[in-house]
Design the sequence.
């Protein structure tokens, strides 16, 4: 009894958390991102990454992609709570392991090094659709698109080739095949 | 060309179209244009409160006792922040409120102007939705949408923030169109199959129980009638949450009393041991469930709720029926009557053992207390208040604490919308302004705020409002000079270290009543209590009743924190007869 000197009950058993990608279609109006993000912080859900942009200029619809971890119960709550927000139209939820969904993040790498190292750096990126966006005789900027953990790994491994700055987006997601989420 | 109206006029035209008859508010710089228009709209009466929190709670009391949305009008900055407690309270207890706030002129937003605050930012987590009106052409639509959001689905508070320049600007007034479509958010989302499943579970159950909550009240008086019909037709026992009191008659034999932390022994044990739990409009709050892992371990659980996010939030259920209680119960009854005629008779033997068991629990008489002839026991005070007012169709509000639980335990409610209490947020100071709102809505009815002396001091200034509008509210203070519930927890869990829970230098409530221009009455002994209560009831003015009660009395029964329903702590009478041993002992 000594351990419950409180008006609240003790935390019960926890389920195992999973990583989910939640996609939310919202009216692009003032404060809408704050509503979505505030719901996460207010209820103690976590956000690993976030990507948001308007996808339908005519109807002013924005698409928010949130990567989060949570137990099945928490992920269900996230979806149901999101659906209650007035500017939210629909909510999709994908597991990270889902083979039917494409996840991509984009990263920009800036390298400052001699030509030999810069070439090696580009070579190392070749599996991730590298594009050279800027080049001088002692630096370049390379864009890659890849999965989160691949970018994590790359940004560690590329240090030796003169990587000085990393800028990256949150994940965006889309289902494979002809189907779309309704 | 159609006529142009100022933003302030549009606000009132919308309120008129929404059939709003009363608004609670407090003027200030950023709402002056709206206040200026008040004189031109006779159908809307403004109630001037003494603090914006009071406006919010009064609007809540109004809403709870009528089923209509409560409206409050406050200024920018401190006006808005003072209303935040009431908005959060309404959000937790699902009360429809429309809060209109003034804001600094558009060109000053973001400049830290005088009485500016980020109202929509501050209230975003405590409203269903809020709007900052940036264009006067949007004002009418937003106002009507605000009422729609507040009152549909699971009700709740909304806020419309109107900058001062918008209140002056002119626009056409668009007529109100009742547009039921809410961004694709439908509320009834169940099928006949769900209902059939429910009826199948009902017919198989040997130890069933109905567990009902505030959702039944929110669904309207018809929902309470349907609930009664279903409970009688099944012959099942029923228990209610704090918010659901009144949806089923408390003096009926099938009613087991309130459940939860301070619920009855029979209700909590029945919840623990049942094989079928039918949750109607309740939300498995932590004050109800106790330890989640051991909550009603052997039961099939059915959850009927309008809010899909309430399903499986705290407790996993076996059958979820998402919909308005009234609609779900109508369908259930229709199907039930068709397929199970004379169910309660034919089913009697199947649940007779269950009722026997419940009678055994009942015989514990868990609400009993040790009476006294010298001091007024708080439970006795409530019992007497109930006996002397039960034929008067009284409306009861409360503050928060021991007195609230005693009121819930000992005052028997037979009708919905008669019981206004802050359950989710637990706001001390709720009851007095709520009583103001209730009395505004029901001028001829008896309205009593059962209060504690600590809580009532938090919003005492609203007595002035009651006097101004001749509202004969009765403030019935159970005065034990302690923050009683805090003291109780300290006694039971913190080795009687009564840290800061005693209020020294309390005011003389009788003199205080006189200072406000109302009537003060004090009762000191059980002997004089009845006479004093009758004196209070016969006074057609606001009354502050200072009932001096036992200072040491604790609220029992209770479920200690982190314990399941079947490990209740009973009152001192029981403890004397049967010493509590083992782990429980350290608690007592």
Sequence:
């Amino acid at each position: 009894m000594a351990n419950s000197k409180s008006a609240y009950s003790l935390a019960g058993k926890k389920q195992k958390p999973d990583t989910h990608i939640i996609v939310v279609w919202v009216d692009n109006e003032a404060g809408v991102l704050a509503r979505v993000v505030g719901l996460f912080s207010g209820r103690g859900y976590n956000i690993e990454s976030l990507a948001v942009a308007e996808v339908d200029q005519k109807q002013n619809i924005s698409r928010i992609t949130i990567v989060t971890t949570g137990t099945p119960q928490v992920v269900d709550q996230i979806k149901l709570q999101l659906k209650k927000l007035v500017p939210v139209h629909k909510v999709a939820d994908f597991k990270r392991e889902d083979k039917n969904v494409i996840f991509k993040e984009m990263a920009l790498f800036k390298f400052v090094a001699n030509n030999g190292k810069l070439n090696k750096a580009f070579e190392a990126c070749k599996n991730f659709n590298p594009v050279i966006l800027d080049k001088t005789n002692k630096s370049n900027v390379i864009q890659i698109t890849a999965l989160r953990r691949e970018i994590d790994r790359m940004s560690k491994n590329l240090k030796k080739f003169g990587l000085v700055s990393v800028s990256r987006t949150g994940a965006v997601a889309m289902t494979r095949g002809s189907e779309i989420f309704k | 060309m159609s006529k142009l109206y100022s933003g302030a006029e549009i606000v009132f035209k919308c309120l008129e179209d929404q059939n709003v008859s009363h608004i609670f508010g407090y003027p200030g710089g950023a709402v002056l244009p709206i206040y200026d228009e008040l004189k031109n709209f006779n159908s809307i009466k403004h109630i001037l409160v003494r603090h914006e929190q009071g406006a919010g709670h009064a609007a809540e009391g109004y809403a709870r006792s009528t089923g209509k949305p409560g409206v409050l009008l406050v200024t920018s900055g401190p006006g808005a922040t003072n209303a935040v407690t009431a908005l959060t309270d309404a959000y937790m207890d699902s009360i429809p409120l429309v809060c209109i706030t003034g804001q600094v002129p558009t060109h000053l937003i973001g400049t830290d102007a005088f009485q500016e605050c980020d109202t929509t930012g501050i209230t975003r987590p405590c409203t269903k939705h809020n709007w900052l009106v940036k264009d006067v052409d949007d004002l009418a639509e937003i106002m009507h949408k605000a009422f729609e959001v507040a009152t549909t689905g699971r009700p709740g508070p909304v806020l419309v923030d109107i900058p001062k320049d918008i209140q002056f600007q002119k626009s056409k007034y668009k007529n109100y169109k009742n547009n039921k479509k809410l961004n694709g958010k439908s509320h009834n989302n169940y099928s006949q199959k769900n209902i059939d499943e429910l009826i199948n579970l009902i017919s198989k159950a040997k130890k069933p129980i109905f567990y009902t909550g505030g959702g039944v009240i929110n669904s309207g008086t018809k929902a309470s009638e349907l609930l009664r019909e279903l409970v009688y037709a099944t012959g099942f026992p029923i228990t209610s949450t704090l918010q659901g009191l009144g949806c089923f008659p408390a003096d009926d034999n099938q009613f087991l009393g309130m459940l939860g932390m301070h619920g009855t022994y029979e209700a909590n044990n029945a919840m623990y041991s049942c094989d079928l739990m039918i949750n109607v409009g309740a939300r498995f709050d932590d004050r109800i469930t106790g330890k989640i892992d051991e909550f009603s371990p052997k039961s099939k659980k059915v959850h009927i709720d309008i809010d899909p996010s309430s399903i499986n939030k705290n407790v996993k259920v076996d059958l979820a029926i998402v919909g308005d209680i009234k609609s779900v119960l109508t369908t259930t009854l229709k199907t039930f009557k068709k397929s199970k005629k004379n169910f309660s008779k034919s089913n009697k033997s199947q649940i007779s053992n269950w009722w026997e068991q419940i009678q055994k629990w009942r015989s514990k008489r868990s609400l009993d207390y040790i009476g006294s002839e010298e001091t007024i026991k708080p439970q006795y005070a409530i019992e007497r208040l109930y006996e002397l007012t039960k034929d008067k169709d009284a409306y009861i509000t409360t503050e928060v604490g021991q007195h609230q639980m005693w009121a819930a335990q000992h005052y028997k409610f037979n009708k919905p919308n008669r019981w206004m209490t802050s359950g989710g947020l637990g706001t001390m100071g709720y009851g007095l302004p709520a009583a103001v709102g209730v009395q505004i809505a029901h001028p001829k009815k008896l309205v009593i705020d059962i209060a504690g002396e600590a809580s009532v001091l938090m919003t005492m200034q609203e007595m002035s409002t009651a006097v101004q509008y001749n509202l004969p509210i009765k403030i019935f203070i159970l005065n034990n000079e302690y923050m009683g519930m805090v003291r109780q927890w300290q006694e039971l869990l913190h080795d009687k270290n009564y840290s800061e829970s005693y209020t020294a230098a309390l005011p003389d409530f009788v003199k205080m009543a006189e200072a406000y221009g109302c009537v003060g009455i004090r009762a000191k002994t059980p002997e004089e209590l009845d006479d004093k209560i009758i004196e209070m009831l016969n006074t057609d003015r606001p009354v502050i009743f200072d009932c001096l009660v036992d200072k040491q009395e604790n609220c029992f029964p209770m479920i200690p924190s982190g314990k399941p329903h079947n490990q209740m702590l009973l009152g001192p009478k029981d403890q004397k007869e049967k010493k509590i041993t083992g782990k429980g002992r350290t608690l007592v």
Q: What stands out?
A: Residues 578-588 of chain B have pLDDT under 50 and may be disordered.
